[in-house]
Design brief:
single chain, mainly alpha
Amino acid sequence: MIDPVDLNDFFVGFFASAMVVVAGALYAGTFAWSRLRALPRLMPWAYVAYAVLFVSLLVLSSALNLSGYWRVLLVLLLLGYLLAPHAIWHLCRGTHGEQTPGEG
């Protein structure tokens, strides 16, 4: 049986969900900006945003009484969100490569 969520926990879950979206976007954006503009000093800020994402998901899972396979799903989500920007970056570099002037 699913445990009902208390009204106070609902509001905590609402704000934790919003933080998941904001921190995830900030992580992806900071990661991409760091790589595109060759600004390695931004990369630690990307990982700070990922840490906020991690904590937000812990708060969300606690507030909404998620357990069992939901926790496994959250771990997979965190792992995917950590690795996806790296994979996408390598895929883009491999696909587009360094074009020389005059190449189309």
